[in-house]
Automatic annotation (TrEMBL):
The chain crosses the membrane at residues 36-55, 62-81, 87-107, 136-157, 163-182. It comes from the Bacteria. This is Ketosynthase. Keywords: Membrane, Transmembrane, Transmembrane helix. The keyword Transmembrane helix applies.
Amino acid sequence: MAGEPPSAASLPLALTGLLGAGFVLARALGADGLAAAALAAGLAMAVATSGRGAARRGRLGGALGLAGLAAAVAVAPPPWLGHALDALPPLCELLLALVFAATLLPGREPLIARYTRLDRGVVPPECEGYARRLTAFWAALLALLAIGHGLVLAGVLAVPDGVLLAVNPGLVAAVFLAEHLVRTLRFPHLGIASPLRTCRVVLRAGWHEAALAPASAAPRRPRHAA
């Protein structure tokens, strides 16, 4: 694909993943200040590296602000931080579910189809239905995870502290990897569906660019992967 070399594009992705793992570990150990710092730093990395060209440069100020917030929270965590961090995962799951679901509305292109178009230049006709169903699946899965997480926080479900922090991301990662295997087997003529390539496309384009784009956007000519 055109753009950054794979190694350069993978570095921010790897760092963001490490910061996410650091957030989960710090929360499990009760180090809320470090957890919040890892979260803010991960968001700063994602903001700084998402989008392309001028859009990316315009977000550097926000990334620097988040990095400063990470340092401040690590040094002096506020007393309400623990409750905020408890509520954050289900809110994020709900937000992502709404992002996926919103792209299924009339006049919009399903989010998975949009990322396919950003990657390949076009959406192969045989993939259109699959992309819509997969978008709906992710919306439903993330909504269920958000509901389950909320029920645990409300005390309706008894689950040990920290279990959901490991189980939910692990489940999402497992489904993400399994779907790429299914896609490879279902559409062998399109080549191997690479999870790393998908992550690069998402990181480079930014979820907001794909989620908010109308379905009427003019398709680009197909490109071959580098």
